[in-house]
Specification:
The chain has one helix and eleven strands; from the N terminus they run αβββββββββββ. It has an eight-stranded antiparallel beta barrel. The protein has a two-stranded antiparallel ribbon with strand order 7-8. The chain has one domain: Beta Barrel (Porin), CATH 2.40.160. The chain is elongated, with a radius of gyration of 17 Å. It is mainly β.
Length: about 180
Amino acid sequence: MFSNKKIGSLLAAAVLMTAGQAFAADNGWVDSVTFEYGTGSNVRLGRLSLQSNWDKQWFASNGRHLGGYWDLSAAYWRGSAYRNVHGEHQNIGVIGITPVFRYQRDDKLGWYVEGGVGANLFSELYNNSDNQLSTAFQFGDHLGIGYVTHDKWDFGLKIQHYSNASIKKPNSGVNFLVAQVRYQF
C-alpha cells in the first residue's frame, strides 16, 4: 500500500500540475488534466497527465468525427511481487508522451472510443511477478471508451499495454485495466 509520504508526494504533484494547468490553459497549450488508476497482475499504477487537443476533424459524418490530442503523463507503479517474490515491492516512475486518436461527437460530448501508441521512459527496469521488461524505454498502447458530460467531466475505462516491441528480450509486457477521470477546460 502507499505510505503517507508517497500519498503526500502524489497530492503535491497533483496540486502543482493543477496550478500549472491554469497558466497553461490561458496560453492555449493545456486543454485538460487527467487522473488515472490502473491495476494489473500484482501491479498498480497512478498517473497524472495533461492533454493538448489537435483541434482537427477527420472523417466527419453524421455529427461525429475522428479527432485527437497529445497526452503528457507522469506515473507511479507499485509492483507487489518484485523478482517474483510475493510481498516484495518494486516502485517505478514512468514519464510518457502519447498521440491519441478519438472518435467522438462534433461537440465533444457524450460517448467516445479512443486509441493511442506512445513512448515511455521508466526509472528502472520492471521485474515483477514473472514479467520482465529489459529496457527503460517502452511503448505504451491503449484502447478505451468513455463519456464526456455537459459540465466537461470525462469518465473513461481503457486497456493499457506496455512493451518494448521486442527491441530486447525479455519482453513479457505488462497489461492494465485503467479507470480515468478528466476535467476539460
